Amino acid sequence: MQRICVFCGSSPGARPEYGEAARQLGEALAERHLGLVYGGASVGIMGQLARTVLDAGGEVIGVIPEALATREIALTALPDLRIVGSMHERKALMVELADGFIALPGGLGTLDELFEVLTWAQLGLHHKPCGLLNTCAYYDGLIRFLDHGVEQSFVHECYRSVLRVDSSPEGLLDQFADYRVPEVDKAAWVQRMNGSR
Ligand code: AMP
Q: In what order do the strands lie in the sheet with 130-133?
Protein backbone atom coordinates (compact mmCIF):
# COMPACT_ATOMS: atom_id res chain seq x y z
CA MET A 1 0.00 0.00 0.00
CA GLN A 2 1.29 3.45 -0.92
CA ARG A 3 -1.57 5.82 -0.20
CA ILE A 4 -4.71 5.93 1.91
CA CYS A 5 -7.68 8.10 1.06
CA VAL A 6 -9.35 9.61 4.12
CA PHE A 7 -12.89 10.95 4.12
CA CYS A 8 -13.78 13.19 7.05
CA GLY A 9 -15.74 16.19 8.21
CA SER A 10 -15.31 19.65 6.78
CA SER A 11 -16.39 20.72 10.29
CA PRO A 12 -14.41 20.31 13.52
CA GLY A 13 -17.26 18.39 15.21
CA ALA A 14 -18.50 18.97 18.74
CA ARG A 15 -15.63 17.35 20.65
CA PRO A 16 -11.88 17.98 20.58
CA GLU A 17 -11.35 14.20 20.33
CA TYR A 18 -12.36 14.28 16.65
CA GLY A 19 -9.56 16.66 15.71
CA GLU A 20 -7.21 14.66 17.92
CA ALA A 21 -8.15 11.47 16.03
CA ALA A 22 -7.38 13.23 12.74
CA ARG A 23 -3.96 14.25 14.07
CA GLN A 24 -3.25 10.71 15.33
CA LEU A 25 -4.22 9.23 11.97
CA GLY A 26 -2.02 11.76 10.17
CA GLU A 27 0.94 10.81 12.36
CA ALA A 28 0.31 7.09 11.88
CA LEU A 29 0.19 7.51 8.08
CA ALA A 30 3.43 9.48 8.03
CA GLU A 31 5.17 6.95 10.32
CA ARG A 32 4.20 4.11 7.98
CA HIS A 33 5.24 6.12 4.90
CA LEU A 34 1.69 6.02 3.59
CA GLY A 35 0.66 9.02 1.54
CA LEU A 36 -2.66 10.80 2.18
CA VAL A 37 -5.30 11.43 -0.46
CA TYR A 38 -8.13 13.66 0.76
CA GLY A 39 -10.61 16.33 -0.27
CA GLY A 40 -8.10 19.20 -0.39
CA ALA A 41 -9.79 21.52 2.12
CA SER A 42 -8.17 23.51 4.91
CA VAL A 43 -11.26 23.49 7.11
CA GLY A 44 -12.54 21.14 9.82
CA ILE A 45 -10.81 17.92 10.67
CA MET A 46 -9.91 17.58 6.96
CA GLY A 47 -7.49 20.48 7.39
CA GLN A 48 -6.13 19.17 10.70
CA LEU A 49 -5.38 15.80 9.13
CA ALA A 50 -3.60 17.23 6.09
CA ARG A 51 -1.54 19.71 8.09
CA THR A 52 -0.38 16.91 10.42
CA VAL A 53 0.84 14.75 7.53
CA LEU A 54 2.55 17.73 5.86
CA ASP A 55 4.24 18.75 9.13
CA ALA A 56 5.50 15.17 9.54
CA GLY A 57 7.03 15.32 6.06
CA GLY A 58 4.53 12.92 4.48
CA GLU A 59 2.94 12.98 1.02
CA VAL A 60 -0.46 14.70 0.71
CA ILE A 61 -2.58 14.87 -2.43
CA GLY A 62 -5.67 17.08 -2.22
CA VAL A 63 -8.48 16.64 -4.75
CA ILE A 64 -11.08 19.40 -4.82
CA PRO A 65 -13.75 20.44 -7.32
CA GLU A 66 -13.38 23.96 -8.70
CA ALA A 67 -16.75 25.00 -7.29
CA LEU A 68 -15.72 23.99 -3.76
CA ALA A 69 -12.19 25.35 -3.86
CA THR A 70 -13.33 28.69 -2.46
CA ARG A 71 -16.24 27.51 -0.30
CA GLU A 72 -14.24 24.88 1.57
CA ILE A 73 -11.10 26.99 1.32
CA ALA A 74 -8.59 24.79 -0.44
CA LEU A 75 -5.40 24.16 1.51
CA THR A 76 -3.21 26.23 -0.78
CA ALA A 77 -0.06 25.14 1.08
CA LEU A 78 -0.45 21.71 -0.51
CA PRO A 79 2.33 20.96 -2.96
CA ASP A 80 -0.06 18.63 -4.83
CA LEU A 81 -3.57 20.12 -5.05
CA ARG A 82 -5.63 18.79 -7.95
CA ILE A 83 -8.57 20.92 -9.03
CA VAL A 84 -11.20 18.86 -10.83
CA GLY A 85 -14.42 19.71 -12.63
CA SER A 86 -17.02 17.95 -10.47
CA MET A 87 -17.76 15.91 -7.33
CA HIS A 88 -17.86 12.79 -9.51
CA GLU A 89 -14.40 13.47 -10.90
CA ARG A 90 -13.16 14.11 -7.37
CA LYS A 91 -14.36 10.73 -6.10
CA ALA A 92 -13.11 8.85 -9.16
CA LEU A 93 -9.63 10.38 -8.88
CA MET A 94 -9.46 9.72 -5.13
CA VAL A 95 -10.35 6.06 -5.70
CA GLU A 96 -7.75 5.77 -8.46
CA LEU A 97 -4.95 7.35 -6.39
CA ALA A 98 -5.51 5.39 -3.15
CA ASP A 99 -4.94 1.80 -2.04
CA GLY A 100 -7.43 1.91 0.83
CA PHE A 101 -10.10 4.17 2.35
CA ILE A 102 -10.74 5.38 5.87
CA ALA A 103 -13.66 7.42 7.15
CA LEU A 104 -13.02 9.54 10.22
CA PRO A 105 -16.08 11.15 11.83
CA GLY A 106 -17.85 13.43 9.38
CA GLY A 107 -21.19 14.50 7.96
CA LEU A 108 -23.23 13.76 4.87
CA GLY A 109 -20.30 14.25 2.47
CA THR A 110 -18.20 11.75 4.42
CA LEU A 111 -21.05 9.21 4.45
CA ASP A 112 -21.65 9.65 0.73
CA GLU A 113 -17.97 9.08 -0.02
CA LEU A 114 -17.74 6.05 2.29
CA PHE A 115 -20.81 4.37 0.84
CA GLU A 116 -19.66 5.00 -2.69
CA VAL A 117 -16.37 3.15 -2.09
CA LEU A 118 -18.24 0.36 -0.28
CA THR A 119 -20.70 -0.12 -3.12
CA TRP A 120 -17.85 -0.01 -5.65
CA ALA A 121 -16.18 -2.80 -3.63
CA GLN A 122 -19.45 -4.75 -3.72
CA LEU A 123 -19.55 -4.40 -7.50
CA GLY A 124 -15.92 -5.50 -7.79
CA LEU A 125 -14.86 -2.12 -9.22
CA HIS A 126 -12.00 -2.07 -6.73
CA HIS A 127 -10.50 -4.53 -4.23
CA LYS A 128 -9.18 -2.08 -1.67
CA PRO A 129 -9.88 -2.14 2.08
CA CYS A 130 -12.37 0.28 3.62
CA GLY A 131 -12.40 1.23 7.29
CA LEU A 132 -14.23 3.29 9.87
CA LEU A 133 -12.27 5.09 12.54
CA ASN A 134 -14.87 4.92 15.27
CA THR A 135 -13.64 7.79 17.44
CA CYS A 136 -15.73 8.27 20.61
CA ALA A 137 -18.14 5.62 19.29
CA TYR A 138 -19.34 8.18 16.68
CA TYR A 139 -20.26 5.43 14.19
CA ASP A 140 -21.87 2.96 16.63
CA GLY A 141 -25.37 3.64 15.27
CA LEU A 142 -24.22 3.19 11.68
CA ILE A 143 -22.45 -0.09 12.52
CA ARG A 144 -25.61 -1.38 14.23
CA PHE A 145 -27.64 -0.41 11.18
CA LEU A 146 -25.31 -2.29 8.81
CA ASP A 147 -25.53 -5.38 11.02
CA HIS A 148 -29.31 -5.00 10.92
CA GLY A 149 -29.06 -4.92 7.10
CA VAL A 150 -27.19 -8.26 7.23
CA GLU A 151 -29.77 -9.77 9.63
CA GLN A 152 -32.54 -8.65 7.31
CA SER A 153 -30.76 -10.12 4.24
CA PHE A 154 -30.32 -6.82 2.43
CA VAL A 155 -26.58 -6.66 2.97
CA HIS A 156 -24.37 -9.65 2.21
CA GLU A 157 -22.16 -10.48 5.21
CA CYS A 158 -19.15 -10.66 2.87
CA TYR A 159 -19.68 -7.07 1.78
CA ARG A 160 -20.33 -6.04 5.38
CA SER A 161 -16.96 -7.59 6.23
CA VAL A 162 -15.22 -5.32 3.70
CA LEU A 163 -15.77 -2.50 6.19
CA ARG A 164 -13.22 -2.78 8.99
CA VAL A 165 -13.82 -0.89 12.23
CA ASP A 166 -11.37 0.23 14.88
CA SER A 167 -11.16 2.98 17.46
CA SER A 168 -7.44 3.55 16.87
CA PRO A 169 -5.61 4.50 13.65
CA GLU A 170 -2.87 1.95 14.37
CA GLY A 171 -5.42 -0.85 14.81
CA LEU A 172 -7.19 0.06 11.58
CA LEU A 173 -3.97 0.30 9.56
CA ASP A 174 -2.87 -3.09 10.97
CA GLN A 175 -6.19 -4.55 9.77
CA PHE A 176 -5.54 -3.05 6.32
CA ALA A 177 -2.10 -4.65 6.18
CA ASP A 178 -3.75 -8.10 6.75
CA TYR A 179 -6.66 -7.42 4.39
CA ARG A 180 -7.78 -10.22 2.10
CA VAL A 181 -10.44 -9.55 -0.53
CA PRO A 182 -13.54 -11.48 0.63
CA GLU A 183 -14.65 -14.32 -1.57
CA VAL A 184 -18.31 -14.06 -2.38
CA ASP A 185 -20.40 -16.99 -3.52
CA LYS A 186 -22.72 -14.87 -5.67
CA ALA A 187 -24.75 -17.86 -6.90
CA ALA A 188 -25.55 -18.93 -3.31
CA TRP A 189 -26.45 -15.36 -2.40
CA VAL A 190 -28.84 -14.98 -5.34
CA GLN A 191 -30.40 -18.36 -4.53
CA ARG A 192 -30.88 -17.33 -0.89
CA MET A 193 -32.46 -14.05 -1.96
CA ASN A 194 -34.83 -15.78 -4.36
CA GLY A 195 -35.63 -18.46 -1.80
CA SER A 196 -36.69 -15.84 0.72
CA ARG A 197 -39.25 -14.24 -1.61
P1 AMP B 1 -18.95 16.60 5.38
O2 AMP B 1 -18.72 15.21 5.89
O3 AMP B 1 -20.37 16.84 4.97
O4 AMP B 1 -18.40 17.68 6.26
O5 AMP B 1 -18.14 16.69 4.01
C6 AMP B 1 -16.86 16.15 3.90
C7 AMP B 1 -16.40 16.27 2.49
O8 AMP B 1 -17.34 15.61 1.63
C9 AMP B 1 -16.29 17.70 1.97
O10 AMP B 1 -15.09 17.82 1.24
C11 AMP B 1 -17.48 17.82 1.04
O12 AMP B 1 -17.20 18.68 -0.04
C13 AMP B 1 -17.64 16.44 0.53
N14 AMP B 1 -18.99 16.20 0.04
C15 AMP B 1 -20.13 16.78 0.46
N16 AMP B 1 -21.17 16.29 -0.23
C17 AMP B 1 -20.68 15.40 -1.12
C18 AMP B 1 -21.23 14.57 -2.13
N19 AMP B 1 -22.53 14.53 -2.38
N20 AMP B 1 -20.40 13.78 -2.85
C21 AMP B 1 -19.09 13.79 -2.57
N22 AMP B 1 -18.50 14.53 -1.64
C23 AMP B 1 -19.28 15.34 -0.93
A: 80-84, 60-65, 35-38, 3-7, 101-103, 130-133, 163-166
Residue 109: phi, psi to the nearest 5? -60, -45
Please tell me the distance between residue 40's alpha carbon and the centre of ligand 1 in angstroms.
Answer: 11
Give the residue, by CA position, lying nearest to ligand 1 atom 12. 109
Helix (H/G/I), strand (E/B), else coil: 75 = coil
The rounded mean pLDDT for the chain is 93
What residue's CA is closest to ligand 1, atom 18?
109
> Which of ligand 1's atoms lies nearest the C-alpha of 44?
4
Q: What is the pLDDT of residues 43-96, one digit of tens each?
A: 999 999 999 999 999 999 999 999 888 777 888 889 999 999 999 999 999 999
In 3D space, the residue among 19, 16, 17 whose CA is nearest the CA of residue 8 turns out to be: 19
For the four alpha carbons of 31, 33, 39 and 42, in that order, the dihedral sign comes to positive
Asked whether the beta carbons of 88 and 67 are under 8 A apart, the reply is no
* Residue 30 near residue 56, CB atoms below 8 Å: yes
